[in-house]
Amino acid sequence: MSLGNTSQPSVKHCVDNVNARYIHGRPEPELVPSRYALKVGAIDVLVVSDGVLSLPGAMLGHNVDPAVRAAWLEDMFLPPDVLEWALNVVLVRSGGRTILIDAGMGVEFPDLPRVGRLVQRLEAAGIDLASVTDVVLTHLHMDHCGGLLVDGVRDRLRPDLRVHLAAAEAEFWASPDFSRVSMPPGFPDALRRAAKRFLNEYRSQMRPFETEYEVAPGVLVRRTGGHTPGHSVVRLASGSDRLTFAGDAVFQVGFEHPDWYNGFEHDPEEAARVRVRLLRELAANRESLVATHLSFPSVCHVAVAGDVFRWVPGPWEY
Ligand SMILES: [Zn+2]
After folding, report:
1. If 0-12 CB within 10 Å is exposed, 13-18 middle and 19+ buried, where does residue 66 land?
2. The pTM is what?
3. How many angstroms separate the alpha carbon of residue 272 from the centre of ligand 1?
4. How far does residue 41's CA lie from ligand 1's centre (Å)?
5. How far away, in angstroms, is 239 Cα from ligand 1 center?
6. pLDDT digits over 250-275, tens only?
């Protein structure tokens, strides 16, 4: 049972709460690692951080007792009521195509000052927006498509850019159902606005798919549903190497508590089923996992731990 949208503190409260912990100020954003390169067989993969979101702790499991939630945050060395969420984007090169998978937050929510760094960090990595041939969107929440709505970005992208998105996702945002979510104040309206604007501005470049689509050799986007009706994951495969970008199908808490309903999930029961199915598969075939909101650079493996799962961070390769 959702606790409803009004039960959550504002995002500004969360940001202030986290900032208060840094009595000497935060480090300069560009002094922290913001990109991480790896190979999946012949496929080049770059994980890029768009920044960090500070959100109400209730978002990580709105169907559980607040005391249980607070204890989990405490165990993770986080403040009891604020969730610090990484925001990862992936750039992939395969078969002569350069594919951006999700695009970060942009400036879609003004009270989140530590996100929206994607373009500047791509530039710092020597990647020109005009070199991107394809964009894959796991779904149309603003923390995944907002970077493409920043002033001037569309003009810098090539006119023949292909934007891949599940047809069910575009349909959903014509009349989205927010009855099962649990979000901070202002979020539902901002999400509706961003998705609508995205569909208007990029409609002519969209290449909607039904179930799955091979964007480039070994780069397969596949619809899962759950989080949103058109939510999709991207499976990379080259030689014997495998990596899945899970978007918002898996969160940090989802290994230990795959049945906790995330506040952004529009169909939480189905989202939990999708999560368990995917985590089981990744544990069985031992492939790598990257997800939007796992701690940067987020490259990890999944192990089975009794009835639930265990997060196994990958070794830092440099
Ligand atoms: Zn997200």
Report:
1. middle
2. 0.94
3. 15
4. 27
5. 30
6. 999 999 999 999 999 999 999 999 99
